[in-house]
Write the structure tokens for this entry.
Amino acid sequence: MARTARYIVPGYCYHLINRGNRRARVFHEDADYEQFLALIHQARSRVELPILAMCLMPNHLHLVVQPRAAQDVSRWMQWVFTTHVHWSHAKYKSTGRLWQGRFKAFLCQADHHLLTVMRYVERNALRAKLVERAEDWRWGSLAWRSAWPVPVALSPAPIVLPSYWRHLVNEPQTAAELAEIRRCVNRQRPFGDEDWVVERAKELGMEQSLSPIGRPRRNRSVPVC
């Protein structure tokens, strides 16, 4: 099956996700998380990639970014992940693939859809039952919004976060919201109002991301000629 292309357009907001190879654990102890955050900080001097929200999980990570140039995401991701692999192999005397390789990305409409994605990212550890409150997860951006100094400086989102943001992140998301976000991750499909999604897909040549996966079912009640 052909890979789904990634279309990165400057100024748009994107949700990025990468997983450990075969979903294996990548971060084993606090020092591993701290080292990865240090790499993100160092990457800023190479490629300025505004980060709106993020969460490091034991076997994967989420980022919400707003790139300023088309190649910034791929250049940033390549340096951070390649450097991290070398560091991890040196520490754990390991070899082989650490990450699954190709990160996934989908663009988000900069309105309440973006807030939905940022909530999804910042409550990831809570949803996985690693903490009792989302802000208790040290490796996620919600914990940094009221802390100083922060391990990674966050850029302001193009839509203002509500004053009750922490409370909102801790509230469960609906099954429909989760299903739609996961569908966008798997298809790398734009996330937004239906008209906006169709317009962006046509504009960027991403119509294939709107099609159902697999072959259409045959309606057996109608004779096939």
About this structure: Strands lie at 13-19, 51-57, 60-65, 104-108.
